[in-house]
Write a structure and sequence with these properties.
binds zinc ion
Length: about 120
């Protein structure tokens, strides 16, 4: 089998990771808990033992959410005349909800990309 035939397409790998699915077979086998990766996919046996993302997933999540929430909050305070005190609790609630929703998806995407990169070595 040639190297190109074994390589999974980047977009498909990324999409499956974002959907918390195994990058190899597309079934639900990437995570065994909220942020715990399976060592192998229970469906196809793909090896995720070296796909742990460490602190990169929280770092990327914080950066994305900060880039989304901070400008909106600043625009509301500076141009719409909203009080910073009034926006504090809704902004924090939005950050919390976005973090809980995005963190496993970003971790899944990064783990899927690591899995793909390690297949090419
Ligand atoms: Zn699988």
């Amino acid at each position: 089998m040639s190297q190109g035939a074994r390589r999974a397409p980047v977009f498909r790998t990324l999409q499956r990771g974002l959907r918390l699915r195994c990058p190899a077979c597309g079934q639900r086998g990437l995570f065994r808990a909220y942020l715990k990766l399976n060592q192998t996919c229970p469906i196809c046996g793909a090896d995720f033992s070296r796909s742990e993302t460490a602190d990169v997933a929280p770092y990327v999540t914080v950066m994305l959410i900060g880039m989304l929430v901070m400008p909106v909050t600043l625009l509301l305070v500076l141009h719409a005349g909203a009080s910073a005190d009034t926006l504090l609790m809704p902004s924090l609630a939005l950050v919390l909800v976005l973090t809980l929703l995005l963190l496993p998806r970003i971790k899944g995407a990064l783990a899927a990309l690591l899995w793909r990169a390690q297949r090419e070595m």
